[in-house]
Amino acid sequence: YVTAATYMSKILNSSGAEIGNTYSAFAFAAIISPFFVGAIADRYFSAQKAMGALHLIGGLLLLYLTQVSSSFLFLLIVLFYSLMYMPTVALSNNIVFVLFASPEILLNDL
Length: 110
Known about the structure:
Shape: elongated
Structural class: mainly alpha
Helix content: over 70%
Order of helices and strands: HHHHH
Number of strands: 0
Distance between the termini: 38 Å
Strand content: under 5%
């Protein structure tokens, strides 16, 4: 995200407010997304599959982000990417805690 402001101001001709809103999308997603994805992942999917799907969707969003020519669309895609990425932090902690609680899972897979 370091060069996003430069890209937005030089290439997309974004205003300072649009750049600020884009950077705040990550913080907004960090607050909102773990509640929804965590509840869904715990009930319906394994954490590994949910994490893989979220990373794949996020990667596709980042690929699409390179084709965008509108500041508003750039903001929306960054927001959706952040909504896909932020739950993976909690999901990775969940996976680690399960493996620490029962290390025989790792030994059985070797």
